[in-house]
């Protein structure tokens, strides 16, 4: 196994010591496997809520608290773990994070009470953001600078494939057999990921000067805060739409309930397409990709609200909104660029920001529905959030130009 330090860019490593393309591909595969497990575990619960509610004799809305508990774990865990683990080698940190994730899912499958299950979902969410952040840094550090976003995108491909393959399979077997089987399977994926990381990810050393305070310094950098704000506000739109896609499909487009699964597949296909194309575009222009995706989201989300009653247009818009995930690798890479020597905290916080976007989008979408505007109006909510994100993006771009000029 290669012993190249993952703290340096391949561009700075002698050719004789640079990892081979196969070694890089295997590292990306190992890290993506973890993303697949995390994505499957995060989204499968949404289809298994009735089963969980039945087991613990609670209502479905009460069972929904476990989703909030997991999301809260992601938001809190990402920055806290990144700071506390500042002096830990990244390979060791990845193993620890995936170990917590695997154990959390296995114990979730064994939870005797609803209260213990909720606590375990919170704990399982803690390593989510930090894992993706550290994995992105490791993947980007093993390729030349002009290929970083594509490396990050390949790691995130595990997450997007989970929405298309892992989540439906976990939901199917969880409903057919027992929901506990689904969480056990996700835990096993976590253990497999640990083995792959142990075998393929090269050992690294802690960078000189790494510390608790240095990582916290990321939040003193305006561009870090602005980039996180873009993610937290600007990308709440897809969640505003997707949170209520079932109601839009059956109540607005007047399709059969079975078509909800088709819409979810279309969204997953869009996410995968957006991730691949967005990674390639980000290596050409990071800021161009972020700004372009925000404008794209505004147009597509408005089109969604205008045409949701048409089944064909609904499916097309759901796919295109999923493509908005194209900004994911670009935002992750942008954070690594502007964080300087506090990359771990900044990169990990990206997923906290996206979970805030999830909560914000779902809340605002639910609000306009409660006001009587209908589920199709969630597209207008999403477009509004994208406009706000575009304003923050413009401020970031202006600050960039002023610092150079």
Automatic annotation (TrEMBL):
InterPro entries tied to this protein: MFS (IPR011701), MFS_dom (IPR020846), MFS_Efflux_Transporters (IPR050189), MFS_trans_sf (IPR036259)
GO MF: transmembrane transporter activity
Designated name of the protein: DHA1 family inner membrane transport protein
Record membrane topology: Multi-pass membrane protein
This protein's UniProt keywords: Cell membrane, Membrane, Transmembrane, Transmembrane helix
Domain Major facilitator superfamily (MFS) profile: 27-401
Major location (coarse): membrane
Domain of life: Bacteria
Any Pfam family the entry gives: MFS_1
Tagged with keyword Iron-sulfur: no
Lineage, top ranks: Bacteria, Pseudomonadati, Pseudomonadota, Alphaproteobacteria, Hyphomicrobiales
GO cellular component terms, A-Z: plasma membrane
Subcellular location: Cell membrane
Transmembrane segments: 23-45, 65-86, 93-114, 120-143, 155-173, 179-201, 222-246, 252-274, 286-306, 312-331, 352-373, 379-399
């Amino acid at each position: 196994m290669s012993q190249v330090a993952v703290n340096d860019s391949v561009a700075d490593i002698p050719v004789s010591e640079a990892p081979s393309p196969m070694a890089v591909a295997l590292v990306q595969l190992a890290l993506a496997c973890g993303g697949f497990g995390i994505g499957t575990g995060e989204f499968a619960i949404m289809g298994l809520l009735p089963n969980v509610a039945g087991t613990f004799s609670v209502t479905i809305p009460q069972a929904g608290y476990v989703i909030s508990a997991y999301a809260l774990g992601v938001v809190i865990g990402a920055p806290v773990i990144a700071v506390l683990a500042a002096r830990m080698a990244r390979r060791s940190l990845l193993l620890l994070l995936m170990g917590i994730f695997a154990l959390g899912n296995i114990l979730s499958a064994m939870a005797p009470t609803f209260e213990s299950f909720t606590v375990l979902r919170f704990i399982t969410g803690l390593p989510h953001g930090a894992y993706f952040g550290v994995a992105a840094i490791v993947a980007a550090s093993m390729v030349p600078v002009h290929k970083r976003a594509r490396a990050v995108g390949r790691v995130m491909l595990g997450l997007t494939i989970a929405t298309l393959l892992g989540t439906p399979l976990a939901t199917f077997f969880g409903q057919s057999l027992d929901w506990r089987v689904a969480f056990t399977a996700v835990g096993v994926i976590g253990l497999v990921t640990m083995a792959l990381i142990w075998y393929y990810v090269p050992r690294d050393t802690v960078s000189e000067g790494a510390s608790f305070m240095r990582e916290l310094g990321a939040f003193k950098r305006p561009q870090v805060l602005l980039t996180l704000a873009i993610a937290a506000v600007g990308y709440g739109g897809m969640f505003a739409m997707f949170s209520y896609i079932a109601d839009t499909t059956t109540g607005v487009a007047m399709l059969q309930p079975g078509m909800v699964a088709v819409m979810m597949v279309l969204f997953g296909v869009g996410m995968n397409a957006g991730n691949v194309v967005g990674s390639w575009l980000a290596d050409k222009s990071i800021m161009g990709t972020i700004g372009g995706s925000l404008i794209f989201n505004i147009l597509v989300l408005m089109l969604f609200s205008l045409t949701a009653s048409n089944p064909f247009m609904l499916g097309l818009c759901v796919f295109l909104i999923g493509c908005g995930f194209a900004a994911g690798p670009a935002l992750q890479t942008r954070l690594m660029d502007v964080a300087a020597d506090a990359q771990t905290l900044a990169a990990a916080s990206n997923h906290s920001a996206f979970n805030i976007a999830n909560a914000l989008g779902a809340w605002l979408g639910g609000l306009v529905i409660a006001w009587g505007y209908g589920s199709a109006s969630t597209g207008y909510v999403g477009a509004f959030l994208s406009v706000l994100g575009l304003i923050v993006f413009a401020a970031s771009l202006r600050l960039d130009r002023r610092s150079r000029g």
